[in-house]
Specification:
The complex is a heterodimer of chains A (about 325) and B (about 100). Chain A has about 325 residues and is of the alpha/beta class. In chain A, about 20% of the residues lie in helices and about 20% in strands. In chain A, the strands form three sheets. Chain A has a six-stranded mixed beta sheet with strand order 7-8-9-10-12-11, with no helix packed on it. In chain A, strands 3-2-4-5-6 form a five-stranded mixed beta sheet, with no helix packed on it. In chain A, helix 2 links the parallel strand 4 and strand 5. In chain B, about 30% of the residues are buried. The chains are: A alpha/beta (about 325), B mainly beta (about 100).
Chain lengths: ~325, ~100
């Protein structure tokens, strides 16, 4: 993947944004000098030298999924968690960007909590659409993860000088629409960031991408622009999403958008299949299936490098 | 065999068979409702069947009715008695839309 690094205009390699694809462990983020950059899960040297705040993102565990694309989604989640446990330096906490369960069943929530909890890290969750299909349309999720949250489960917290904002864009979805934040949450967000200095690094995490990845497949959020408008004045905004089960990244001004891979099953690249349904790959490829690499570079900005590691990688 | 047993057996045969002749099936496949628009007579029962490897649901546009999440192979049925147009969508993937037109 090193051959995809771009050294442009004499800028050193460490400034490059690098994205390496993976089949489902996590993304390790390090906040150095207020700007998040990610480092490889398995890169123990990088982990050991990282200073400041480090945290992890996992996504789309789909506990309960047992279809051909991965008949044992619980096993690949366990493999991901085992890797996290084996990390030489513990991250400060973990973000889970939704679709913890496949069908919001109590047993699925229980199994997920037990497995993910075994990593011994604090976990900050936001729900995916699969987590709120219980009879109470989200009651089961909120009973478990809704403490100190508003509405459908949104909240913010500060850690290591970074302001983290967990948003919910999977509730009260409208016919024909995409992901949806809604006026109540937007009002809360505007108020939440009002008192913050523009130099505060912001990390926003939500399930469905907050940028228009592929609206034909519902991969976007209708009112994301309003939310991003409230964050315009900030010098560093990082948006972490899941939902599309593949890595994508876009940098727009001060905002870096990134989607993480699933720990359960891959989904096709936008428009490359009749539908965004689970992508079937040969069993022996499942743990390494997603192997594209993209490199981004933004001049004059400190690097935000995102490295994903396949379960098949050593 | 007593008369009520015969009736029970007949009812079992009718209900146990897939779908009655006058009833309609909408397949959910590749993240679409097929057919997306369906015209029926009042009193028709419509059954949605999910053929995808991902759950879908059937939610009336104004949430007047909402199915539970339908896993692969699961079905949801509604009988439509009143004439009119009923728009619906998938509660998990709201870009998936469909319409039932009930016409005498």
């Amino acid at each position: 993947m090193a051959d995809d690094h771009h050294d442009e205009g004499g800028i050193s390699r460490r400034h490059a944004l690098e994205c390496m694809l993976w089949a489902g462990t996590g993304v390790l983020w390090a906040v150095t000098g207020g700007v998040p950059r990610s480092i490889g899960l398995l890169d123990s040297a990088a982990a050991a030298t990282a200073t400041g705040l480090t945290f992890l993102q996992i996504s789309d565990s789909h506990v309960g999924f047992d279809k051909p694309a991965n008949p044992h989604a619980i096993d690949t989640l366990k493999e991901a968690i085992d890797r996290i446990k084996a990390m030489p330096q513990k991250p400060s906490f973990m973000l889970h960007t939704g679709d913890i369960t496949h069908l919001s069943k109590p047993a699925e929530f229980d199994n997920a909590a037990q497995l993910i909890g075994s990593a011994g890290l604090q976990v900050h969750y936001v729900p995916g659409e699969h987590d709120i299909v219980d009879e109470g349309t989200g009651k089961a999720y909120l009973e478990r993860y809704g403490q100190n949250t508003k509405g459908a489960g949104w909240y913010s917290f500060d850690q290591g000088g970074v302001h983290f904002i967990g948003l919910v864009n999977v509730a009260n979805l409208k016919a024909g629409g995409l992901g949806f934040l809604g006026p109540d949450q937007l009002e809360w967000l505007e108020d939440d960031v009002k008192g913050l200095s523009a130099s505060t690094p912001i990390v926003v995490f939500a399930h469905i991408p907050l940028w228009s990845v592929y609206p034909n497949w519902g991969w976007g959020t209708d009112d994301a622009a309003v939310a991003l408008g409230y964050l315009k004045r900030f010098g560093s905004v990082t948006v972490l999403n899941g939902h599309i089960h593949q890595l994508m990244q876009k940098v727009e001004g001060n905002v870096t958008f990134h989607t993480a891979r699933s720990t359960a099953f891959p989904q096709p690249a936008p428009g490359t299949a009749p539908s965004p349904g689970p992508m079937l790959v040969p069993a022996e490829k499942l743990r390494s299936v997603l192997g594209i690499t993209s490199v981004h570079y933004t001049q004059g900005k400190e690097a935000l490098a995102i490295t994903d590691t396949a379960l098949a990688d050593r | 065999m007593t008369a009520w047993r015969l009736i029970a057996l007949a009812a079992f045969l009718v209900l146990g068979s897939d779908v009655r002749a006058e009833d309609m099936v909408i397949q959910i496949e590749n993240f679409t409702f097929n057919p997306a628009e369906l015209t029926i007579k009042p009193g028709t029962t419509v059954t949605w069947k999910n053929a995808d490897d991902i759950p879908h649901s059937v939610v009336e546009d104004g949430t007047k009715f909402r199915s539970k999440p339908l896993d692969t192979g699961e079905t949801f049925s509604m009988t439509f008695t009143d004439a009119g147009e009923i728009g619906y969508f998938c509660g998990l993937h709201p870009h998936m839309k469909g319409k039932i037109i009930v016409k005498p």
